[in-house]
Amino acid sequence: MAAVHNMEISWALRELADILEFLGEDFFKVRAYRRAAKIIAGLERPAEELYRQGTLGKIPGIGRNILAKIGELLTKGEMEKLKALRQEVPAGILEIMALPGIGPRRARFLYEQLGVTSLEELERAAREKKVRALKGMGVKTEMEILRSIELVRRRQGEVLLPLARELARELAECVREAPGVLAVSVAGGVRRWQETVGEILLVAAAKGAEPVLGALAAHKRVREVAWQGNGGIRVQTWWGVPVELRVVKPEEYGVALVKATGSEEHCARLFALARRKGVSPEDLLFPPAAGDATQPVPEFPGAPLPQAEQEVYRRLGLWPVPPELREGGEELEAAVRPEPPRLIEPGDIKGDLHVHSDWSDGASSILQLVQRAKEKGYRYIAITDHSRSLGVARGLSLERLEEQHRFIRELNEKEKDFRVLTGVEVEILPRGGLDFPEEVLAGADVVVASIHSGFRQDRETITGRLLEAIKNEHVDIIAHPTGRLLGEREAYAVDMERVLEAAAKYGKILEINSSPDRLDLDPHYARLARQYGVKVAINSDAHDLRRLDEVVYGVAVARRAWLSPEDVVNTMDLPDLLKILGRS
DNA sequence: GCCGTTTTCGGCCCGACTGTTTTCAGTCG
Questions:
Q1: Would the pLDDT of A584 be above 80?
Q2: Chain B: nucleotides under 7 Å from a protein CB?
Q3: How far: A67 CA to B7 C1' (Å)?
């Protein structure tokens, strides 16, 4: 593992971009840094490796300057320019600039007019009604600022799942290699595939705790030790996520993993059940079996559980409950039944119905996407680039769309056992209606419709736009139905029950968007979808090759919603799928 | 900042929405 993680390089570049933007630097320069940050974050291999090989600078978007800055970070541990700029700009201003509705200009204006350099100071100024007095700002802006600050506060300390998984993987590896460790596993929200987490829990089995605790404390990602003792340690990391490790005696491993993985509710009910059944704590002691330590952070939802943990559930007369279900709902009642539900697994997915290519704002060519889809074992993939009105995403004009569909049809003539579906992600326009005329939509294999504008419209308006799209006979799938961006933007005001009702009536599919910052539908609505008889599609919405793999996050959402393969359209073989899409 | 190869300088990003305003600046996707 590289010493400097790709994420860390990406963060540094992004911070550089933010500061330069605040300072009023040229738009294109700022964008260049942002692009580079995104490119580095999307790399499949450590940038450090590529840098040493001399191939990092060959990637489009990484030019001489940015390459040199990355080099500095890799060799000296910091970027000179970033260090210097940090002196110039108080860190809190970047937080102000990150508020929705506040860009570089307003952040600068607030700073100059009110002298605010942090969220706290801005909040005070807003409460004292000083913001509304400024030129160009009013009561609404002031209220909006207070609301956004509230939102930021609430999500503080929560990170998206992929970041937590990455950190957990590194630290678990380190623990596994510590002396005397028999097994280690991540637990808690990460293991339950919760969408965001506030901490990472690790459980290890070892004869002696001290050397194991010491190994974690000495890890390079660890910033400081919060506490240590009694077989446990809690540390703060440089990535901002606290990590707690519990080291238990080998025979306690299974039950310790159960306790550390389930929600409080799940565990309380589980151990109440044990008492009712007269199962003593001694009856629940199971040491790790051979092979229990193979994968500390499960690679995909539905991965096999450690034997020691399975034994705990079996001893209580239950089938081993998958971590994604351990939320304290009805999973324990369900688990007394002889057969566990057949939850969807990544291997059930036969294709992706929402993918962007370099024809619009994707980074990869159609051929690359097709190649990767085949490698993943898919039978089909739909290329669904943006429609014309989404300018920033280089939305396709009518002519470009037709050209692309011609290209794809020609491609299919050479394909055997694989089908590239023509598609489009068509804008649901702010005033209602769709961005392409009927006859164009009629010509596509898959029409994905979604909202990218007018997020702040009222409930009636937004719901109305979605209902209109659902009623359109050519629309197949509503993508990211609530529009939320985790940690950035709340869902728009939508009456999801009416949307589901309409989707059921018109036979439309709702998406579980697998992007880790969307996960939209969420488990609650995904489950509701099934109750309404609405099928879902688990799509990646990938903008590059690597993100095709994010579909596991969507599968995790579906599992958390108790969905089976038959609830999900892209588990179907092509003929059945085409039938559902009305294209057979 | 990056890129190109009719190149080493000029193009790259644009339309819509929002809140504040009577004509527009700032923000966003």
A1: no
A2: 1-4, 11-21, 25-29
A3: 21
3-state secondary structure string, A236-286? EECCCCEEEEEEECHHHHHHHHHHHHCCHHHHHHHHHHHHHCCCCHHHHCC
Q: Specify the domain boundaries for CATH 3.20.20.140 within chain A.
A: 346-580
Question: Mean pLDDT, to the nearest integer, of A186-192?
Answer: 98
Residue nearest to nucleotide B24 (CA to C1'): A136
> How buried is residue A275: exposed, middle or buried, by Cβ count under 10 Å (0-12/13-18/19+)?
exposed
Angstrom distance, A370 CA to B12 C1': 29
Give the residue range(s) of CATH 3.30.460.10 domains in chain A. 159-334
Report whether pLDDT(A456) > 90: no
Judged by C1' against the alpha carbon of A65, the nearest nucleotide is B1
CATH of domain A6-155: 1.10.150.110
Whether the predicted pLDDT of A2 surpasses 80: no
Report strand pairing: A242-248 vs A351-355: unpaired
Which residue's CA lies closest to nucleotide B13 at its C1' atom? Answer: A392
Q: Which residue is nearest to nucleotide B15 (CA to C1')?
A: A391
Residue A440's identity, in one-letter code, is V
Q: Give, in Å, how far the C1' of B27 lies from the CA of A140.
A: 15
- Rounded CA–C1' distance between A60 and B3, in angstroms: 9
Straight-line distance from CA A512 to C1' B17, in Å? 27
Model-level pTM?
Answer: 0.94
The sign one gets for the Cα dihedral A138, A143, A145, A146 is positive
| Third-level CATH fold of A346-580 | TIM Barrel (3.20.20)
pLDDT band for A397, please (50, 70, 90 cuts): confident
Mean pLDDT, residues A163-188: 97
Q: What is the pLDDT of residues A117-132, one digit of tens each?
A: 999 999 999 999 999 9
Cα A386 from Cα A184, distance rounded (Å) = 44
- Which CATH architecture fits A159-334? 2-Layer Sandwich (3.30)
Identify the pLDDT of residue A388. 84
